[in-house]
Amino acid sequence: FDPRHHLRTHRYGFPRTGPHRLRFLLESVKDLRETLKKKGSTLVVRKGKPEDVVRDLITQLGSVSAVAFHEEVREI
């Protein structure tokens, strides 16, 4: 979870992630984790700037050959 997603928008000062969206995200991640656990897998969840978190995970794992990501569309 990127803490910058909880800041306010630049133009109008609205929350970028409101309480309903946050609840949906948390419930979705919890459900995904439970589904993966039933299949013998797991889900790594971290809070922080992705550029820092991913770097730290790669360092921890040691043998990473590729990283895929999705960039969120930003305001103009």
TrEMBL record:
Keyword Phosphoprotein: no
Keyword line: Chromophore
Pfam entry (one): DNA_photolyase
Single Gene Ontology MF annotation: deoxyribodipyrimidine photo-lyase activity
Residue ranges constituting the Photolyase/cryptochrome alpha/beta domain according to the UniProt record: 1-76
GO biological process: photoreactive repair
PANTHER family on file: CRYPTOCHROME (PTHR11455), CRYPTOCHROME DASH (PTHR11455:SF22)
Listed name of the protein: CRYD protein
Source organism of this protein record: Pampusana beccarii
Classification of source organism: Eukaryota, Metazoa, Chordata, Craniata, Vertebrata
